Amino acid sequence: MSDSPSPSGTPGHPVLSSTPLVVAIDGPSGSGKSSTSRGVAARLGLAYLDTGAMYRAATWLAVHEGVDLADVDAVADLVARAQLVLELAPEHHSVTIDGHDVTTAIRDPDVSAAVSAVATNLAVRADLVARQKQVIAEATGGIVAEGRDITTVVAPEAPVRVLLVADASARVARRHAELGEHVDAEAVHDQVVRRDRDDSTVAAFHDAAPGVTVLDSTELTLEQVVDAICALVPAAYDPAVAR
Ligand SMILES: Nc1ncnc2c1ncn2[C@@H]1O[C@H](COP(=O)(O)OP(=O)(O)O)[C@@H](O)[C@H]1O
Ligand SMILES: Nc1ccn([C@H]2C[C@H](O)[C@@H](COP(=O)(O)OP(=O)(O)O)O2)c(=O)n1
């Protein structure tokens, strides 16, 4: 790892950063964002923010309250009033909305099938992006945040920004293995390919913005992906250097 440039650091003796480390990770469904981000956060002792869980929780609430997802104003109003609490520890991540613990429920296939309708609601996006920025700003010990627009909109100034990609066939196969072989191929295809197509109308996660490192996980193990992302952390932030 090379020394990071710093105003007064000398080569070999970087000045340690006084700002908390932010690692931003985007990518399509099944590219490995959640598992990789948890691994990076655990290894570097950082908090972990799953922004997809916020869109999923908003979707769960709208369905629970019987709000028509096509009614963009009603959904936006509901979400604006919702109290959304995320546990940021990578080992025990939990999500609560308006007092309901939805950690497990937001992974239901019904939520996965419906979430793009909420994620493409621009008023909901503005609300959740503002909350995500606040969570990151308050993470004094540093944070890994992952989603679709973290490298471009939520944390474009993050010192580590990664677009995690993988071949569509690998992503579908991973999701199928995760959901179980009893889930039919059409449902898995819907969760990965159709959802990415809908989601990409409001967030650019297929092409890397300038300065964003593209990492292809198709042929890599989870550990290799975690290694590759940790290797991108400037020395001024590296806990191994800071010690
Ligand atoms: N590099 C990898 N190699 C093999 N399987 C992986 C890899 N990364 C993630 N997975 C698996 O693929 C599935 C989807 O990963 P996940 O982290 O949920 O992706 P995303 O958050 O991008 O949708 C999970 O079951 C996960 O364990
Ligand atoms: N920053 C984000 C995060 C997620 N989303 C949308 C896109 C997805 O359809 C849903 C759920 O995201 P999630 O990361 O949980 O989805 P996957 O685990 O990758 O399948 O939210 C978004 O639009 N912007």
From TrEMBL:
Q: According to the UniProt record, where is the region Disordered?
A: 1-21
Q: Where is the Cytidylate kinase domain?
A: 23-233
**What enzyme category does the UniProt record give?**
transferase
Q: Which reaction does it catalyse?
A: dCMP + ATP = dCDP + ADP; CMP + ATP = CDP + ADP
Gene Ontology terms: biological process: pyrimidine nucleotide metabolic process
Q: Which GO terms describe its cellular component?
A: cytoplasm
Key word Hydrolase present: no
**HAMAP family in the cross-refs:** Cytidyl_kinase_type1 (MF_00238)
Q: What is this protein called?
A: Cytidylate kinase
User: Whose protein is this, by species?
Assistant: Microlunatus antarcticus
